[in-house]
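Please fill in the sequence for the structure shown.

STRUCTURE ENCODING:
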């Protein structure tokens, strides 16, 4: 890829090759069949082709050894292949001079979650990636030559994070071995190895569907080409859109279905007057006398 000429011409080494070292993702995974997205920005960032000439003192150069005056950015897509394992695909990029966005490469890898108890989550991630940059430089005689660099790298990360609450502190250890090739405009192409290690501390603000995390990273870089190592501090921000798997599920009680058919009549109000009295009790029947005499037949006179 072709970058702006001034990006590489501004540095004595010819160009820079920035890559993020400490961007943390949550220790949990997205869950089987789910997806997540994360975007991070980090500055200053590791320069894989930094050399011993990139010193900040005594000439107040903008580049300290191991760091470049650029912001590295990473866009990560996560897909859960199991409940505790994600596959991750990331696009690597840089904001040269914190303004000009330029893609530099990409990576792919896996992330594994381990339940570390009631209060902690543990995560491990491994990725393999490639970054590169090329620029055309014009010298004082008007001659145009290409200067570039590329690198294959591995990235290993271990993350320990608290499990519950809105604020969840996080610590991560990051290791990044790299094999780098350079093609300067003024000398033959050569290759060398480098190794970056860093530790990251972040404070994650966790919602049900999103995460926001400012972080600080301390990075040390060593390369056998220049036989030196450098140490620098960088800061960054990570924003992720993914479900918080440690939030309790909201349980909605089922609604009572309406009753169909005739409804019972309301009970009548109690009477406001005394109830009617029953008939008065009757006394014993009167005594009966002897039956009357039977009638006598009458005989007519002869």
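FILLED IN BY: designer on duty
SEQUENCE:
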């Amino acid at each position: 890829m072709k970058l702006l000429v001034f990006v590489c011409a501004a540095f004595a080494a010819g160009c820079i090759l920035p890559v993020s070292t400490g961007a943390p993702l949550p220790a949990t995974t997205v869950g089987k069949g789910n997806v997540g997205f994360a975007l991070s920005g980090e500055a200053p960032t590791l320069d894989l082709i930094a050399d011993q000439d990139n010193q900040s003192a005594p000439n107040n150069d903008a580049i300290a050894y191991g760091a470049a005056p650029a912001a590295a950015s990473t866009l990560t897509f996560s897909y859960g292949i199991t409940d505790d394992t994600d596959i991750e695909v990331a696009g690597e990029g840089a904001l040269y001079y914190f303004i000009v966005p330029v893609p530099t490469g990409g990576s792919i890898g896996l992330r594994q979650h381990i339940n570390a108890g009631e209060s902690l989550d543990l995560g491990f991630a491994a990725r393999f990636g490639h970054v590169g940059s090329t620029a055309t430089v014009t010298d004082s005689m008007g001659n145009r030559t290409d200067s570039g660099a590329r690198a294959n790298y591995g990235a290993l990360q271990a993350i320990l994070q608290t499990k519950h609450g809105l604020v969840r502190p996080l610590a991560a250890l990051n290791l990044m071995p790299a094999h780098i090739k350079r093609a300067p405009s003024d000398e033959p192409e050569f290759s060398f190895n480098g190794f970056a290690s860093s530790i990251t501390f972040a404070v994650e603000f966790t919602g049900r569907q999103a995460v926001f995390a400012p972080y600080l990273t301390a990075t040390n870089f060593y390369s056998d080409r220049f036989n030196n190592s450098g140490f620098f501090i960088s800061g960054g921000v990570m924003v992720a859109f993914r479900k918080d798997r440690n939030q309790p599920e909201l349980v909605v009680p089922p609604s009572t279905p309406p009753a169909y058919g005739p409804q019972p009549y309301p009970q009548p109000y109690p009477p406001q007057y005394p109830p009617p009295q029953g008939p008065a009790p009757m006394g014993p029947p009167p005594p009966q006398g002897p039956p009357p005499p039977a009638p006598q037949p009458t005989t007519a006179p002869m």
